[in-house]
Amino acid sequence: MSGANASPVGRSDQEMSKMNWSLWIRQTLTVMKMELKRYVLGKRWVGIYLLALAPVGMLTAAVIFGRGNPPISALTLVYAVFYQTFFLRLALFLSCAVIFSQLYRGEVLEKTLHFYLLAPVRREVLVAGKYLAGVVATIAIFGTSALLTHVLVYMPNGAWTQFFLEGSGFPNMVEYLMATAMACVAYGGVFLLIGTLFKNPAGPTALIGAWEAFFFILPAGMQKFTIMHYLQSMLPVGIDMGPLAVVVDPTPAIFGIPMLIAVAGVLVWLAGQVVRRAQVTYSAD
Amino acid sequence: MALPVTPDQLIVFDNVSKFYGEVLGVNRVSLAIPPGVTSLVGPNGAGKTTIMNLMTGLLRPTKGTVRVLDISPSDPERFFRTIGYCSQFEAFPKGLSGYQMIRSMMDLHGFVATDAEARTWNVIERVGMTNAAHRRVAGYSKGMRQRIRLALALVHDPKVLVLDEPLNGLDPMARAEVIELFRKFAESGMHVIISSHIMHEVDIISDSVVMMSSGYVVAEGDIQGVRSEMEDHPIQILIRCDQPAVVAAEVFHHDSVVEVKLHSDRQGLLISTSNPDRFYELLNRIVLEKKIAVEAVAPADENVNAVYQYLVGSNGGALR
């Protein structure tokens, strides 16, 4: 083996700096692929799969063993309550907390961070790759769950296919899927940053969980500082939040989606800045 | 005349200190390490791994700067193409095989797929891991993990190779092969930085040593040079010959000779001298005049172990 320096494919440093963008994209995708390989098929996400797929199992059982012919309007309301309470506020929120906060913190706890930090990769690129892996995984898991539950919930009604093909079933489903994807994008950014800042993310997660879950009792101006406000605004059906709810005009999706993406981008950038200063001192962590 | 060494040929520590909170890692370290094999020597806790982690950008100095071939660790794309680090960290990313780990590293380096694949298999073969390449790293033995770490450090052909206790976990055959490999790297102009607490290995491998104790560099340079600067400790010279008593009698009242010990087998003697050059002249004269058959003459304490003991042992000497 020669001692010659190995610029990839024989390029000089100057050429390398010119091609940085393509290199960064390739490195980001490599990190993403590695993370997906490590986590998605691993045992550590079993709880998350259960949380996401339990409603699918329950609704499948309801379809198989259920009787009667509930009206579409009732099923629409049932799904809205299920989605906005259990799915969005509990299952998806907690799963994003577990997945994204562990993307960086998990490496520190398992003492494997040095593997990435010894690669010729900018740490911001590393963080971006990990974040994208989390987004892809959570959207795949919870998107699938949202899609299946949305179809299954209507199946007890005899005209459910008509509702999807001719009624508002399909557009509603797209809106639920969009809200699911945006939740993954936005909460992903939040918990990625938390994972880089805190040794134990439980405390901040509980605070943010309370802030997001009870966003509807906040004054109108402050609700705009919650992710849930924008997600709720994307949903096709509202639910009654009780007497303490402060009613706020929804933010149109055309503003809400770019807003959430921008916020996530800023949070990921901040996480990159934290990791940029990181050192490998496992014993101290 | 040798060409002057430029910063892009050196690993430079400029007044570097590293504290872990209030705990000292290393203090006021200034080094300029040229190409060749350099060993970091010292007991556990001396600061060897801290130096290596600083050198590879895994730690940032509390004070001072580190540059490797004039590249700062804050430029990771250039820095980590230049350096390969075989660390002592036991953990590896979970769920990956040895092959997948090295191949992923190649992708992170930006090698095109065919080149990356070829290099991956080349280095796997080189460290003797071909048969286990597709097994998960979690199932590897200690020696196999050491080999895969070595492969990760070597796969991109770095100019600087940093190896923290690289011979740990290797069997004697593999140790000999690896030592030979390091020598070849050094001969090709690479920097090979090795930490070890096994002194006789350091003697075999190293062109120069950096001796550390409690976070401080106590000496650096080639071992003969370091030894010759230790005024407080006379040089010990071992002589095997047919008439050791005659030699002893002749040298005993000479100014430069401090101590003479005859071997119990009456076939040799150990001489301590404060002026080895003058002593060797004297010895030549005695051998010729007395017609003494000399079997061997060798410095007895011009090795890393002895020097380290003198420097930081209970009778620690002082450098000029």
Number of strands of chain A: 0
Strand neighbour order, sheet with most strands of chain B: 5-6-7-3-8-9
Query: What is the CATH homology-level superfamily of the largest domain in chain B?
Result: P-loop containing nucleotide triphosphate hydrolases
Let me know the largest β-sheet of chain B: 6 strands, mixed
What's the short version?
Chain A is mainly α. In chain A, 72% of the residues lie in helices and 0% in strands.
Structure write-up:
The complex is a heterodimer of chains A (285) and B (320). By secondary structure, chain A is an all-alpha fold. Chain A has one domain. Chain A contains twelve helices and no strands. Chain A has helices spanning 13-18, 20-39, 46-65, 72-109, 113-117, 123-154, 160-165, 169-197, 202-213, 220-223, 227-234, 253-276. In chain A, helix 3 (46-65) packs parallel to helix 6 and helix 4 (72-109) runs parallel beside helix 8 (169-197). Residues 1-10 of chain A have low confidence and may be disordered. Chain B has helices spanning 48-55, 76-82, 98-109, 113-126, 142-154, 172-187, 199-205, 223-228, 244-252, 276-290, 304-312, and strands at residues 11-20, 23-33, 36-41, 63-68, 83-86, 160-164, 191-196, 208-213, 216-221, 235-241, 257-262, 268-273, 294-299. Chain B is built from eleven helices and 13 strands. Chain B starts with 10 loop residues before the first strand and ends in an 8-residue tail after the last helix. With 320 residues, chain B is α/β, with parallel strands linked by helices. In chain B, helix 3 (98-109) packs across helix 4 (113-126) and helix 9 crosses helix 10. In chain B, the strands form three sheets. Chain B has a six-stranded mixed sheet, with helices on both faces. Helices cover 36% and strands 27% of the residues of chain B. The longest helix of chain B has 16 residues, at 172-187. Chain B has two domains: 7-227, 3-Layer(aba) Sandwich (Rossmann fold), CATH 3.40.50.300; 234-300, Alpha-Beta Plaits. At the A-B interface, helix 2 and helix 5 of A face helix 2, helix 3 and helix 4 of B.
